[in-house]
Design brief:
By secondary structure, the chain is of the alpha/beta class. It has helices at 2-7, 35-52, 63-83, 131-155, 168-172, 174-185, 201-204, 208-220, 236-242, 262-277, 290-298, 315-330; strands spanning 23-25, 57-59, 87-96, 104-112, 118-119, 162-165, 194-198, 224-230, 247-250, 281-284, 303-304. Helix content is 46%, strand content 16%.
Length: 331
């Protein structure tokens, strides 16, 4: 009933609004006998509600304690992995499909586990809900990328920019933005060589104010800001109007069936046209075959990213691809 009441928002002065709340609850005396434990279990239920999606409500269940213990163990394992050099970064190319331009890259985190298996954030993404762990991972990735940019600049590797995925933990930790600003101000980094990717969820959370302030600081130093997974949220257009966004990345869910689904084609073409009218470049994610690439080219999409070009690769192979991409332009 509380969720429904919050979601019911009558129009004010002709303008509608959409508000949704995630709710977690624990009950006395079933779940706990003191306020401290009740609040702890209610908070645990709230995390479960957030993971279930917007507007969900969850009551505390005993099984949630096991989930919390598992997440705590994963956080500890990740901190150990950072110390033991088990974490590393790969670079997925972002290529133009019309006018020849230097290739860009997205830095992707990987974890080489004890058994030798390579894990992606999809398998341990829950740890990013913990600001401290998220900030530690963000610091690691940022360090790797800044060092990579320095090495490529010294070696004359032609590249447009390297994009990194920011989290709320990054923006709540002043060190993340402060370090980027310091690198630019010291002349060790050209602003256009780094792109910080954000998602809409970061702008709807209680940390949204810190994110907006950080975006403004980054923009003032020429750092590009990209809107990742564009089209999957509820207020994407509002954020395009309010924030200094340099690039939108159309979510792969719109690209998968773009050749067969008329509605997806209309949506993608509309996003591209709108973004260009606002002076924003467009990257299509999840491009896997030439037919998709040709269709996106006909729609004037600026860049594509996906397995058609390459999966995430090491720095040596990434530099090789960047040089190959540059060769026709030099000739």
């Amino acid at each position: 009933e509380l969720s429904a009441a919050i979601a019911h928002n009558p129009a004010a002065q002709g303008f509608g609004s959409s508000i949704q709340a995630s709710i977690g609850a624990a009950s006395f005396p079933r779940d706990a006998l003191d306020v401290h434990d009740l609040m702890k279990w209610a908070d645990m239920a709230l995390y479960a509600a957030k993971r279930a999606g917007r507007g969900c409500a969850r009551l505390f269940e005993v099984g949630m304690r096991d989930d919390a213990d598992c997440r705590a163990a994963t956080r500890a394992a990740i901190r150990h992995a950072l110390i033991a050099d088990e974490m590393f970064v790969v670079y997925q190319p972002i290529a133009t499909i019309a006018t020849p331009q230097p290739m860009g890259f997205e830095a992707l985190l990987r974890w080489r586990a004890n058994d030798g298996a390579i894990q992606t954030p999809a398998t341990f993404g829950d740890v990013f809900e913990d600001d401290r762990t998220a900030a530690e991972i963000g610091t690691f990735v940022l360090t790797q990328v800044l060092d990579q940019i320095t090495r490529w600049n010294s070696a004359g590797v032609p590249f447009q920019s390297i994009a990194i995925n920011a989290t709320l933990g990054d923006f709540r930790s002043s060190n993340f933005v402060d370090r980027i600003v310091e690198e630019v101000d010291a002349g060790r980094l050209r602003g256009e060589q780094l792109c910080v990717e954000i998602t809409e969820g970061m702008l709807l959370d209680r940390g949204a104010r810190a994110v907006r302030q950080s975006i403004d600081r980054l923009h003032s130093r020429g750092i590009q800001v990209a809107f990742d997974d564009f089209g999957t949220g509820f207020a994407s257009l509002t954020h395009l109007r309010q924030l200094p966004i340099s690039r939108v990345k159309i979510d792969k869910s719109f690209i998968e069936a773009i050749c067969a689904d008329h509605k997806d084609r209309v949506i993608v073409k509309s996003v591209i046209d709108l973004a260009h009218q606002l002076g924003i470049s467009v990257v299509a994610e999840g491009v896997e075959d030439a037919e998709q690439a040709l269709l996106l080219r006909s729609m004037a999409c600026d860049r594509i990213q996906g397995f058609l070009i390459s999966p995430g690769i090491g720095e040596v192979e990434a530099a090789r691809l960047a040089r190959i991409n540059e060769a026709p332009r030099a000739g």
